[in-house]
From TrEMBL:
Protein known as: Phospholipid-transporting ATPase
Protein origin, superkingdom: Eukaryota
Species in which this protein is naturally found: Gouania willdenowi
Chief location of this protein within or outside the cell: membrane
CC terms in the record's Gene Ontology section: early endosome; endoplasmic reticulum membrane; plasma membrane; recycling endosome
GO terms under biological process: phospholipid translocation; positive regulation of myotube differentiation
Stored InterPro entries: ATPase_P-typ_cyto_dom_N, ATPase_P-typ_P_site, ATPase_P-typ_TM_dom_sf, ATPase_P-typ_transduc_dom_A_sf, ATPase_P-type_domA, HAD-like_sf, HAD_sf, P-type_ATPase_IV
Gene3D superfamilies: Calcium-transporting ATPase, cytoplasmic domain N, Calcium-transporting ATPase, cytoplasmic transduction domain A, HAD superfamily/HAD-like
One MF term in the entry's GO annotations: ATP binding
TM segment ranges: 69-87, 294-317, 347-366, 893-913, 943-965, 977-999, 1011-1035, 1041-1066
Domain P-type ATPase N-terminal: 42-96
The enzyme's E.C. designation: 7.6.2.1
Amino acid sequence: VFRAGMYRVLLVQCAGEENWVDSRTIYIGHKEPPPGTEAFIQQRFPDNRIVSSKYTFWNFIPKNLFEQFRRVANFYFLIIFLVQLIIDTPTSPITSGLPLFFVITVTAIKQGYEDWLRHKADNAVNRCPVHVVQHGKIVRKQSRKLRVGDVVLVKEDESFPCDLVLLSTSRDDGTCYVTTASLDGESSHKTYYAVQDTKAYNTEKEVDAIHATIECEQPQPDLYKFVGRINVYMGNESVARPLGSENLLLRGATLKNTSYIYAVAIYSGMETKMALNYQSKSQKRSAVEKSMNAYLLVYLCILISKAIINTALKYVWQADPNRDEPWYNHRTETERQRHLIRAFTDFLAFMVLFNYIIPVSMYVTVEMQKFLGSYFIMWDDEMMDEELGERAVVNTSDLNEELGQVEYVFTDKTGTLTENNMEFIECCVDGHVYVPQVICNGQVTDTTKEGWEREELFFRALCLCHTVQVKEEETVDGIKHGIHQGKSTSFYISSSPDEVALVEGMKRLGFTYLRLKDGQMEILNREDEIEKFELLEVLTFDSVRRRMSVIVKANTGELYLFCKGADSSIFPRVVSGKVDQIRARVEQNAVEGLRTLCVAYRHLSPEQYEEVCHLLSDAKLALQDRDRRLAEAYDLIEKDLILLGATAVEDRLQEKAADTIESLHKAGMKVWVLTGDKMETAAATCYASKLFRRSTQILELTTKRTEEQSLHDVLFDLSRTVLRHFSGDCTDYGLIIDGATLSAVMRPNQDDLNSGNYKEIFLEICRNCSAVLCCRMAPLQKAQIVKLIKASKEHPITLAVGDGANDVSMILEAHVGIGIMGKEGRQAVRNSDYAVPKFKHLKKMLLVHGHYYYIRISELVQYFFYKNVCFIFPQFLYQFFCGFSQQPLYDTAYLTLYNISFTSLPILLYSLIEQHINMDILKKDPTLYRDISKNSLLRWPIFIYWTILGVYDAIVMFFGAYFLFDNTTFTSNGQMFGNWTFGTLVFTVLVFTVTFKLALDTHYWTWINHFVIWGSLIFFVVFSLLWGGIIWPFLNYQRMYYVFMQMLSSGPAWLSIILLITASLLPDVLKKVIWRSLWPTTTERIQVSGETKTPATATRVSRRDANCADV
């Protein structure tokens, strides 16, 4: 179906099914195809303008307001403000309008400034000059004016202006080197290939003469996937060539070590893969935020209840004619009739009067606390890696407090627990072991001709079967490589550290890989002779096959397929070779924690090679299901292999990884290792990192065991074993499960009648194990495990940590995702909530920063609700003494500034710098983390206690002031106190009480605390003196004139303020003293004895709280 201006849609028949596949056709240089080949329909594509901004000058105000009022709290206060404007309410609209206006304005200014920066960055990118080939000449134009189909010239160290298909390069072999650091963080040089039929065109005129069209898929965000084909017209004939990700240069990547390239634009502007990856990740919400929202609902119900009670009591009060309006303001009979509308307006008026019980400023304070608090992680010098020069990174500050609530830690192994710094240890050829330091330079253990030939074939296989690039001495990204004792030498670069280790290992054993030039791979053998092999095909590695292959042609004309991969993917495809000896060596190396690979080969006849070429060509030219068809082709090609041998590479454990895992265990967290490695290798790493101890009883849930017993029986056996845990058995259990068995547990056979509760049994087993190792895991299975634990009945808080692209799915799935700045690129870092240079930094991030964040924000939330109950409950009580007339107790200025100025800064500062225990003690005694687990400081009993405390303080303030001045309401000059003086007295006691309450809760005092806490009280006094001591010309009433000074001139007022503050704070102080004496927590014990007790003694005390059931 063709339509001008729209995309082209192809109908493709595949596997008996009809599928509509979107594709686009690009005409290179905007040239029409030759007559009779295909219809020329010029399609419209977006320009190359990048728009990362959210707003324009015209839509900023309405769009920003719409987004802000989607928040429930903002919308609620807007409704209250409108009610105050529409009906006659007891308080001025300013009291709710000003705080709301302040919050909305500050947020709008912040978002507007951020968007202005985005506009500025967009303009810089969109106006960047690019070079385009037009009519055989180079034309300079702005990047935003680039169109799909334009042929672009890019020079060395320039970034690609859009997504391009490579046509030709300055190199004879049609390759170019690219770094994609800005896209995925990988700084290694990747090789890209020009189209075979256009790579010879190296000048503007030659490139302009290219006559071709490109058919490719519509834009999609996967950086590593591209499917297309190019039709090159030569006369009336056309040649079709496949296009894949190796031909696609992505916007934002940079050209390196290549003088220039010519390429054609295929995706532009917001359709480039970089732009399609702009969209933000799904929003994660912390447990504290959920508790906060639940508390808000409770307080909303309290607010509505108060309004209903007061409305009802008002009409009960007015039912008595003697209590109706005063004699000079009697109402008519019509007015006396109780209309529902009047009752509703009274209800709304009471809602307005009491609405301050829900604090709008709490949202702003929490946002500021999270944003400013996140800098403490980034500024922490102990979490900086000198070698990398990297600090911890905070990608989202919304989850700071969640770091203090983690119950399950899911970690990758390679690059996370280990250094991902590979060192070649040994290789095994036909059962004979070769160690570079011991046996090299031709000294071998097998002297037979056949053994010699197979050994050399093994070494050649490892020198040829890889994607390593060779660099001569040169500067790469500002760092000089290849200088050794004044001589220029080569060095290896690869996206996989394993491959570099293997090639360097072969170099130490006498076979040196030199280069790939003009399709020829060159090797220097032991006799210093250069051998050349023509590289015909590369069957790339993928995580599903877990192997890679190359097809090469020797000078003798012989065709070889060399294959290397995991033992589980090679052994089933082997038909001959010394399998038993090599398998035994592989298993022995795996037990020692070494990474193993197996190497195999097969001879190909010319006929077999033709068949292979046909299979691969058909799969590569497919526009639909190309990945599946390639996988099927690889499966058919990589068979009937002859096993040559195996390799062993060591990946050392990261510094302090074992100490970190041990600390996490003591803190009550369960650590799971999720890895793609084989079981023996992963288990050895787990023992080395102290995840498993020698006393740990290992339970296996693996394919090997399920082959001997049914899955049902194995699960129930393990379940019975761990249930002894509850009968006084303190055995420490560890579980090992592999990917295949996990799939069976997650998606059991439908015919199995007992399969329904497999997940529950599996979860029950896992709950009773201190550590779990999941090996042979696919990336998606890692996410499934995390999701399974998240959805279990306890709903524990999960944390996932990893360093590679294969860890991204579990990082996104977990409540908190942490990326390690490792050697497998920066995809994990880009997709994480937090990033740290090394695994060891996880200890301080959780045990110190997480602990502090949770303590601080839980106090902030509880304190905000407490001080607002203290603030508004006297107003509720006052209605019983003013005939439910909606008369406010406090002045408008006090209502407005209570949450904005008088009580906001002390709690904000507390929530930023409070340290209830010294951080050194938190690091040395991880069991203190248990005191705050499971959201313990925001549970309902504690919330109710704070609310009752607020109600008690409000009653003391109100009735204390009422009874103290019931008969002595005279100043020294005989004047009586009025209602504003009474309200000011209550408000003064209120401000001092809630501020002193926070001071009593503060453990970590600095000059800033003193300045803010006492400064806030001084500000209140100064403001009250000014507000009541000056005639304000812009106010039409002066009801507060001289009120505050008159109150302070009374001796009884001073006495009552001191008495009421003491009476309000006394119960909370007594409760703390009694509780700390009788039922102290571990934290409170440390606080009491922390100064006199050594950390070691403190640790012994705290461990009494940790029994074996917790572990």
